[in-house]
Amino acid sequence: MAPTRRVKIPTVPIFSSKAEADLALARIGELQRQRIGIMTEAEARISELNEEARQATAPIDTEIDDLVKNLAHYAEYNRVDLTENGKTKTVTFTHGTLQWRLTPVAITVKSVDEVLARLRALDLTRFIRTKYEVNKEAMGAEPEVAVSVEGVSFSRHEDFVVTPSETKVEIDKRIRVKTPRQGSAHI
Predict the structure, then answer these.
(1) CA dihedral 120, 121, 123, 128 (to 10 degrees)
(2) Can you name the residues that pair with 98 across neighbouring β-strands?
(3) Widest CA span of the chain, in angstroms?
(4) Do residues 139 and 153 touch, judged by C-beta distance below 8 A?
(5) What's the DSSP call for residue 96?
(6) What global pTM score does this model have?
(7) Between the CA atoms of 108, 111, 114 and 118, what dihedral angle is there, to the nearest 10 degrees?
(8) 84-115: per-residue pLDDT in tens?
């Protein structure tokens, strides 16, 4: 039995002829062209402003980098005095602080398969993670079995797409298709 569809009555007037529908498509194309023109102009202005800002801030960024490098050299040279022989990692000044922080350890594994083989050979399987995942491709191949499992459901959407020939820009609206209840295999 085919799923039933509920159709909402639109709040806008329904076109009464193919010619009216075609005029609507033409109008959509015209409006999209206007919108694209406005957005293109705005993006060009934004790009110009971003470039102007990059050029204006370049000397500021250079000065900041130089000052930070000089502070780092100063702090490293005077670290024992500044940190009271390593008692603190933060130094407070009137206009700010300097800190030393250790980053988290980064672990890099090259040739994963070889490392896994070595870990198994050394009986260090506690360093190996096994990941279990639901195989959705297998479920899709056997939907009548998969849908019988509690917590598994299937859904499908139908898109209504309008493409004016003038712009070739697609407008799609998702239409919800009623899905079968659990236990049903009509997908």
Answers:
(1) -20
(2) 91
(3) 87
(4) no
(5) E
(6) 0.54
(7) -10
(8) 998 998 999 889 999 988 888 888 888 999 99
